[in-house]
Amino acid sequence: MRESDQPDSTFRRMFRGHFQGVISWQQLDSLWDKLRTDDGRDWFIYAVGEAPPPAPVTHAQLVSFIDEIDALLRREHDEEYCGIVYADERDAPTFIKIFDPNNLGVVCGYSDNPPLPGWILSLIQPEDLDATHVLPGNRRRWWQRLFPGPHTA
Predict the structure, then answer these.
(1) Phi, psi at 27, each rounded to 5°
(2) Maximum CA extent, the chain
(3) Where are the beta strands (DSSP E) in 50-143?
(4) CA angle 25, 27, 30 (to 5 degrees)
(5) Sheet holding 44-47, edge to edge
(6) pLDDT of residue 132
C-alpha cells in the first residue's frame, strides 16, 4: 500500500507538514547541538526501508547517530551547503527528515513522486512509509552497525 493510501495519522500529518530547510552546515551544527543537549525527550530514529523502530533510542544512541549521520552527510554530500536536512522547527525540532545524498531526486521544489527521506528523527512513533522502498546494501550495513538487533528489520 502506498503512503498516500494510508489512513491519516499524526505521524503522516507531521510527515507531510511544513518543514524548514537546513541550508548551511552551520545551521546543521546548531540543529545537532540542540538534540545533543536535550536529553529529556524520547527520539525515534527511523531508517526508511527498515521496520519502524518499536521504541525510542537512548540519548547515547541519539548522539552516536548524530555523529555518524553528520560524518556521512559531509563525506557524501560534497557541497558548500547542506540543504538535505529539513526540520519542522529548526529552533525546537520535533520531526526531522534527512535525505540520503545518494538518492536525492527532486527533494525541494515540485515533483509528483518526491523521494522519501533516508532517515527520520521524530518524537512520535514512526509508521512504515513505503514497504516497497529497500535500503541499498551499504546503507543497511551502516544502519545495522549503528543499531544491531531488534531495532532493525
Answers:
(1) -65, -40
(2) 39
(3) 85-87, 95-98, 119-122
(4) 110
(5) 20-22, 85-87, 95-98, 119-122, 44-47
(6) 57
* Distance from C-alpha of 77 to C-alpha of 71, rounded to nearest angstrom: 10
User: What per-residue confidence (pLDDT) applies to 141?
Assistant: 78
Which residues are CB-contacts of 26 (< 8 A; sequence separation ≥ 6)?
none
Q: What string of pLDDT tens digits covers the 153 residues of the chain? A: 444 455 678 999 999 999 999 999 999 999 999 999 987 899 999 998 888 999 999 999 999 999 999 998 988 887 777 888 999 999 999 999 999 887 665 444 445 556 789 999 999 999 988 655 666 677 777 777 777 765 544
Question: What residue type is 12 in one-letter code?
Answer: R
As a residue count, the chain comes to 153
Contact status, residue 97 vs residue 114, Cβ threshold 8 Å? no
Contacts of 73 (CB under 8 A, 6+ apart): 28, 82, 84, 85, 98, 101
Amino acid at 43: W
Residues 36 and 66 sit within 8 Å (Cβ to Cβ): yes
Cα 133 to Cα 95: distance, rounded to the nearest angstrom: 20
Give the pLDDT of residue 107. Answer: 46
Cell numbers that stand for 50 in this block: 527498515
Q: Please name the amino acid found at residue 123.
A: L
